[in-house]
Design brief:
The protein is an alpha+beta fold. About 45% of the residues lie in helices and about 15% in strands. It has 27 helices and 17 strands. The strands form four sheets. A five-stranded mixed barrel has the order 1-2-3-5-4. Strand 2 and strand 3 form a beta hairpin. Helix 1 packs antiparallel against helix 2. The longest helix is centred in the C-terminal third of the chain and has 28 residues.
Length: about 750
């Protein structure tokens, strides 16, 4: 039905009926249908402004008209016509227009009643009323600009009238019931609005633009950014919206590519974890072979899913509903297979050529392959626990892995000087021969390569001809040193430098991992069974290897575990010496008494010259000579033990070997001790002669003294037997150093 009203007013009333604010809308609509009842005479402008302040509202001028209506209705209940006229004059209101307002309001109420429009009983909210008003004034909206004016539809620009209560509030979005053009375009009867109200009221007029459709894992939908304009005025910018409702075909493709192929999707389906693990495994083959063409591209995986997933599936929930039903009939419908993904060249990348674990001397170290030239991790990276760092032989890692060895050999051969390359013949043939005959071992790669070339090609390559400095980074093993908890400590391609840098920390960490059930202290006799050369035990990060050894604790020995074989051998030798002395204590007491005969010879020296092994303050006689004699005596006893029980013999590791050695050699201790005693006397006498010669030469060591020193019997050490030869103990070389220092 047609309303006998201005189209804008009729639209407002229909909108108010839908919003539930018809009672307030009838007042505002009747107000907008008449001239403004507020008067502003030039002679009393300030007084009129003050009088109208009661009806001013900073958010909406329409709420000001409602306040004026409520004020007038309240006065009309008790005041006479004359009183109302006087009140209007005092408040700068037009009595005639106020009466007209009442008359128009009655007419609008009658029309609304005839149409059956519902009148709300509860007061309407701000948003309800202004959404209804907006339906009549859609083309009079605007957004504040940086120039502090407002931009409206069709590039219209306007300012808010100074008489409006909204002008000073700095509203972002406004709606105006009237536009007045003077020197500028001004908006009157203004109210704050929200841009989404415009979109709702002008759905048939707005234009929507969508960009950057993408998959969002959290919402499990393909989303896009929506841009909404109203006659060129942007009312919504970059709003996220479901792209499946806009373009289901494109949304489905993006769902397959980004959610399934790119694996940016969360699902409990077994197919997803299976396909992801399979693809990651096959991608590792490409890193191992340093090729990116061994596995089918993502387009193949997309076509695989595209053939199986229905055309209307473009969201996560819809996909899960379909999958649950489809997998009841075909459980492996979405399972990729290794055969379909691998290209023929990938079959050359075997576990034997490119292992995931490097085994060296019974220890296993994980390997990682990375193909990215220029990246610090490019090539092969081996992870070494800090506790095992000092046990590693750098030369063992020069061989890399079997699948990469041939390439390294070719680089080394091609880097040889030109004359050697010519002598080798075709480089490819030399590389093939060398790679086929080399077997990984603990010696340097270039040393083994020299031997193979000499034996099978007949060319002798000098060691200095090899140049491994020109090798690419990926042909040098990358070392990753990790702490006990697996955290990275250091990395690099120079293992000796890492071992030197982290040696102290590696020894400390190894000590914290030793197994207490194997170590012992306070040992005075061999009662602990056989001692293995190495042991292994588990700890938090894997298996640890150590080398047991006897350790000299002075009054006893202990079983300690070293992290390096060389250190274990040194410690074990000293521990064996001490254990022999403890078990043969009576014999060594007698031996000590016999050695005391040399003490008198030592004490005859009035002074001892400074030595690089002792401070100047310690080289005075006779008091210090006494202390030096104790050190000398201990060294002499150790010398006797080494000569009789340890020298040039296999290291003792079993109780049976220890007992046999002790029983067979112990009777010879006294004889060897006597020879040592005689040798000490000769050395001390030679030292005395040197001091005398120095005194007679005025402190200078001449040629005669040198000739005398070389003619002395000291360098020509007497033999104890056909198998043993007595050597000076640790303290004895200090005597010769003192003599040379004096000269």
């Amino acid at each position: 039905a047609r309303l006998p009203l201005h189209p804008r007013v009729g639209t407002i009333l229909l909108g108010a009926a839908q919003e539930g604010c018809l009672r307030e809308a009838l007042v505002v609509a009747s107000y907008l249908s008449i001239d403004d009842p507020r008067e502003r005479p030039l002679a009393a402008r300030e007084a009129a402004t003050a009088a109208h302040a009661l009806f001013r509202h900073e958010r909406s001028d329409f709420l000001g008209s409602l306040a004026l209506w409520a004020f007038y209705q309240e006065q009309k209940k008790t005041a006479s016509t004359r009183a109302l006229r006087r009140l209007c004059r005092e408040r700068y209101l037009s009595y005639t227009r106020m009466s007209e307002w009442l008359d128009v309001h009655r007419q609008l109420c009658a029309i609304a009643g005839e149409m059956g429009l519902p009148v709300n009983e509860q007061p309407a909210a701000y948003s309800q009323l202004h959404r209804a008003l907006l339906t009549g004034y859609l083309t009079r909206v605007g957004v504040r600009t940086e120039q502090n004016d407002y931009l409206g539809p069709r590039r219209m620009r306007f300012l808010i009238s100074p008489a409006s209560g909204v002008g000073r509030s700095g509203a972002r979005w406004v709606m105006a019931a009237e536009l007045l053009e003077t020197s500028r375009l001004y908006a009157a009867e203004v109210a704050r609005i929200r841009p989404e109200w415009i979109e709702r009221a002008a759905q048939h007029l707005v234009k929507r633009h969508h960009r950057e459709p993408h998959w969002e894992p959290n919402s499990q939908k393909v989303m896009a950014y929506e841009h909404v304009t109203f006659y060129g005025l942007t009312i919504v910018a970059n709003r996220r919206t479901d792209y499946g409702r806009i373009d289901p075909g494109v949304a489905r493709e993006l769902f397959i590519r980004e959610a399934l192929v790119a694996r940016r999707y969360h699902t409990k389906g077994a197919f997803f974890s299976h396909n992801q693990a399979l693809l990651e495994e096959l991608r590792r083959l490409e890193h191992k072979a340093r090729r990116l063409d061994l596995v089918e591209e993502e387009e193949f995986v997309f076509r695989f899913y595209d053939k199986r997933i229905p055309a209307d599936i473009c969201t996560g929930p819809a996909f899960e509903r379909w999958r649950d039903e489809a997998e009841k009939q075909h459980p492996e419908l979405l399972f990729l297979t290794r055969e379909s993904l691998l290209r023929p060249a990938a079959h050359e990348v075997t576990e034997e050529a490119f292992p995931d674990v490097l085994e060296l001397n019974g220890q296993r170290f994980p390997l990682q392959y990375h193909f990215q030239p220029g990246n610090p991790d490019d090539g092969i990276t081996v992870t070494i626990p800090i506790a095992s760092l000092r046990q590693q032989i750098p030369e063992s890692f020069e061989w890399l892995v079997p699948g990469r060895l041939a390439e390294k050999i070719c680089f080394l051969i091609r880097a040889l000087p030109k004359d050697l390359r010519r002598a080798l013949g075709p480089v490819s043939n030399a590389c093939k021969i060398s790679a086929a005959r080399l077997v990984p071992q603990s010696q340097p790669l270039t040393q083994a390569l020299t031997r193979v070339i000499r034996e099978h090609i007949g060319v002798d390559v000098p060691a200095e001809a090899w140049n491994d400095e020109r090798l690419p980074e990926h042909l040098l093993m990358n070392f990753r040193i990790v702490d006990i908890d697996g955290s990275l400590l250091d990395s690099g391609r120079n293992l000796p430098r890492l071992q030197q840098k982290l040696s102290g920390y590696a020894r400390m960490q190894f000590g914290s991992l030793t197994c207490p059930e194997f170590e012992r202290t306070g040992i005075t006799r061999w009662d602990f069974g056989d001692l293995p050369e190495q042991i292994e035990w588990g700890h938090g990060t894997g298996v640890c290897r150590g080398y047991p050894a006897l350790s000299d604790e002075r009054s006893s020995v202990a079983i300690r575990i070293a992290d390096a074989r060389q250190e274990a051998d040194r410690t074990h030798r000293a521990g064996l010496r001490r254990l022999f002395m403890l078990e043969l204590a009576p014999a060594f007491r007698d031996l000590t008494r016999n050695l005391r005969g040399s003490r008198g010879v030592w004490l005859n020296y009035p002074s001892v010259p400074p030595s690089p092994f002792r401070s100047t303050a310690s080289c005075r006689a006779p008091a210090v000579s006494q202390s030096l004699w104790g050190s000398l005596q201990e060294d002499l006893i150790g010398l006797v033990v080494d000569e009789v029980l340890l020298d040039r013999e296999p290291m003792i590791r079993t109780e049976l070997q220890f007992r046999q050695r002790k029983e067979e050699r112990a009777p010879r201790l006294m004889a060897v001790a006597q020879e040592v005693n005689d040798l000490v006397g000769e050395i001390l006498q030679a030292y005395s002669d040197i001091l005398k010669a120095r005194a007679h030469s005025g402190g200078r060591c001449g040629g005669g003294l040198v000739r005398y020193q070389h003619s002395a019997r000291v360098p020509d050490l007497p033999r104890v037997s056909s198998r043993h030869r007595v050597k000076p103990a640790a303290a004895l070389p200090a005597i010769f150093e003192c003599a040379r220092h004096s000269c």
